[in-house]
From TrEMBL:
SUPFAM superfamilies: Nudix. It holds the Pfam family NUDIX. Its EC number is 3.6.1.55. InterPro entries: MutT-like (IPR047127), Nudix_hydrolase (IPR020476), NUDIX_hydrolase-like_dom_sf (IPR015797), NUDIX_hydrolase_CS (IPR020084), NUDIX_hydrolase_dom (IPR000086). It comes from Streptomyces gibsoniae. This is 8-oxo-dGTP diphosphatase. It is an enzyme of class 3 (hydrolase). Keywords: DNA damage, DNA repair, DNA replication, Hydrolase, Magnesium, Metal-binding, Mutator protein. Its cofactor is Mg(2+). Residues 3-131 form the Nudix hydrolase domain. It catalyses: 8-oxo-dGTP + H2O = 8-oxo-dGMP + diphosphate + H(+).
Length: 131
């Protein structure tokens, strides 16, 4: 059986806030919100991919803290795995794939229109947040 292609997502936490990123592309995803991240490249660990993706997409240095239990199937052959991450340096800016970023408190989490595949992941993040 073929191994799934792993996509990493970052539950980037800053105290009592979680960073959400609004997609600008592709058109079928534009305007919906997600946890920032991206595809793990061949020869790369998921944690290294997470650090690289956050640098490329948001211009920040972050550190993976812990894996959020669970994984969520995406389009054919892809699976989403999420890590909590801590911001080490920089201020997040939407450099690619996103047109807006928003820091959300737990009370604001459902104020944005999450991508379908991110809803279950965000629910899992809420179970480990500030534990």
């Amino acid at each position: 059986m073929t191994q799934p292609i792993v996509v990493v997502g970052a539950a980037l936490l800053d105290g009592d806030r979680l960073l959400a990123a609004r997609r600008s592309a592709p058109p079928e995803l534009a305007g919906r919100w997600e946890l920032p991240g991206g595809k793990v490249e061949p020869g790369e660990t998921p944690e290294h991919a997470l650090v690289r993706e956050l640098r490329e997409e948001l211009g920040v240095t972050a550190e993976p803290v812990g894996r959020v239990p669970g994984e969520w199937p995406l389009k054919s052959g892809y699976v989403l795995r999420v890590w909590t991450a801590r911001l080490l340096a920089g201020r997040p800016e939407p450099l690619q794939d996103h047109d807006e970023l928003r820091w959300l408190t737990p009370d604001e989490i459902w104020d944005v229109d999450w991508l379908d595949q991110d809803v279950a992941a965000v629910k899992a993040v809420l179970t480990v947040w500030n534990r």
